[in-house]
Amino acid sequence: MPTDPLSIREAWSTIPSPGSVESEFERFTGKRMERILATVVALGSGVLGTQALIAAITTTTWSDASRVAMVLVVFVPLLGMLIACVTGRAVRIAAGIFAILYVIALGAWPIVVDPAARATDQPWIFFLVNVGVVAAVLAFPLWLQLSWAVALPFVYGYVRLVEGGFSREYWVTTAFDVSFTLILGIVIIALGWMFRSVAAGVDDARTRAVASYAGAAAAAAAEEERAAMSALMHDSVLAALIAAERADGERARDLAVGMAREALTRLANTEAAVAEEGSDEPVGAAQIVVELRRALSELGADAIVEERGGIGLIPGRAARALVLAARQALGNAVAHAQGRGLHIIAEGRGEEGISLTISDSGPGFDLREIGEDRLGISASILARMAGVAGTADIESSECGTKVTLGWERR
């Protein structure tokens, strides 16, 4: 069944305009990817943070205020970052705060930790080195992410060497830890960059597709409006001018005045909404026949009019297009065939639809020889019926012309 034009307009109005202010629609994939990255970071950081917290609790001397301050400076911002990642709010701010405070805490570790209590095992703060890197991924641009990924392992390596007094056994283990952490941090940044690039590519492709569709829709709407206006000019305005030119009597002049009044009214209503162009209540074959008889009277032509079949109800919009297309076919028959053998058949098909056949016994014409600027057939008949999902078929030969119009319920 044909789609309501009002519904199409309402649906189209909900699509944001591409190319202006960046909208939620245009950045949908990027925002979704950021949400996924934040969730993954929350899970991984939560596991490593729990491991580091257990190690901190078991190794920290709680009577030492500096050690307690170190635990608070590291784990309170980490908890804030985890909450932000889970809720999806202020992720960049929370991650940036943790990344900066963690670097400060890691650099101050040799000063805060009592040298007599240094252990040969890795300190608990080491478990969070890569957490600091992923925090930078969430908070900073790419060049700062790379700076964090390179700086944090070397800061940690320096801290371990200071703790070990730069002894030989510390160099081997520290070099292994630094290289492992450096490679893992660069891999994390590369993955984040890759996922974000893919998301940005998808958003750009979507934006281009929407822009292309918007352009195509605008072009189609402009072409539809041009065809409708051309059909209106041909059906009403030009017909009124011809009638006025040929008016040679009182009745002909009255007819020309009526046609001119109708043409001016239709021109004034060209920008009216679809709902104001007439009711869309179902129209039967009998009402269409009445309109065709009125058209014959206005044209001053005689024709055989037959009604066949059932009632044949169709929507008012389709009925108006059917009547206007039939009027154009009648006008062509009168103008080019002098109305010879004019015959109209209106066949109702119950709830299925209606078909109209307008035939004459004139000399006929060749459809292929009609110029593109002649809109009597292309716009007033073919395009008009196509606009309401109807059908129009024209057969013409030296024996006459037959125009078949139809509308069926899909």
Could you explain the architecture of this structure?
- InterPro entries: HATPase_C_sf.
- This is ATP-binding protein.
- Keywords: Membrane, Transmembrane, Transmembrane helix.
- The protein has 410 residues and is an alpha+beta fold.
- It has 2 domains: 5-208, no CATH class; 278-408, 2-Layer Sandwich (Heat Shock Protein 90), CATH 3.30.565.
- 65% of the residues lie in helices and 9% in strands.
- The protein is built from 11 helices and 5 strands.
- It has helices spanning 5-13, 28-59, 65-87, 91-112, 129-139, 142-163, 168-246, 250-268, 285-299, 316-337, 375-386, and strands at 304-309, 343-348, 353-360, 391-397, 400-408.
- The protein has a 5-stranded mixed β-sheet with strand order 1-2-3-5-4.
- It is rod-shaped and about 120 Å long.
- Mean pLDDT is 78; it is low at 12-24 and 271-277.
The DSSP helix count reads 11
User: How many distinct domains?
Assistant: 2
The succession of helices and strands, N to C, reads HHHHHHHHHEHEEHEE
In total, the number of strands is: 5
Helix content: 55-70%
Report the sheet-strand fraction. 5-15%
Query: What is the gyration radius calculated from CA atoms?
Result: 40 Å
Distance between the first and last residues' Cα: 5 Å
The chain-level mean pLDDT equals: 78
Query: Largest sheet at a glance?
Result: 5 strands, mixed
Question: Spans of 5+ residues with little confidence (pLDDT < 50)?
Answer: 12-24, 271-277
Strand order of the largest sheet: 1-2-3-5-4
Describe the global form. rod-shaped
What would you call the structural class? alpha+beta
Protein name: ATP-binding protein
Keywords: Membrane, Transmembrane, Transmembrane helix
